[in-house]
Amino acid sequence: MRRQRGRTALAPLAAAVLVTAAATACGGPFQDLGPLPPRFSGPPLPADAVVSEMTSVLAAEGITVARQPSEVLGRCTERLTGRHAPGTVDSALRAAVERARSEHGWQAGPDLGNGALTLTKGNWTALTALPSPDPEQKTESLVIMSLTCLDGGSPSAPTAPTPAPSSS
User: Fold this and answer.
1) Whole-number pLDDT of residue 16
2) Where are the alpha helices (DSSP H) in the chain?
């Protein structure tokens, strides 16, 4: 009987020693690498400016879109919707994305696969899916572009802060 008690008392002690050894070997001192880089560079872009820019880029390729009201509280999102001829919608969207990159400074966004096109600029990400139109389709293809900002994309242009009056 005494031998069993000795073995059962050693098991938790051995486990504690192993956990401590593993934590000591793997948990060296953390090196301070400084602050995290900003999530975007430059001042936040206002939503109206981004929507206007993307609307004009799409219009230049023959895609007319309308701004849908953003109804998500606390999130900075916009949506542009429109219709385009099914036979040329893919090429028009690809051309619009290229125009946004070359003429307006948008950068290629994360690769989400063959069916999606993404762009980033400042605090904004633009995403559109390429519709898979049926060549026999008689109605126009639906075009949706979602615009999402990280933070700070107020609807109107930012205003310069006014200095507080000084008391003399």
Assistant:
1) 64
2) 2-26, 47-60, 89-104
| Of 111, 78, 76, the residue nearest 97 (C-alpha) | 111
b/e burial code for range 53-86 (CB count within 10 A of at least 16 → b): bbbebbeebebebebeebeeeeebebbbebebeb
Length of the chain as a residue count: 168
* Helix/strand/coil for 88: coil
Report the C-alpha gap between 125 and 119 in whole angstroms: 6
State the CB neighbour count (10 A cutoff) for residue 8: 9
CA distances from 35 to 38, 39, 41, 108 (A): 9, 12, 15, 26
Among the ranges given (28-42, 69-83, 94-108), the one the predictor scored with the smallest mean pLDDT:
28-42
pLDDT digits (tens, 9 = 90+) for 34-81: 776 666 777 888 889 999 999 999 999 999 999 987 766 666 889 999
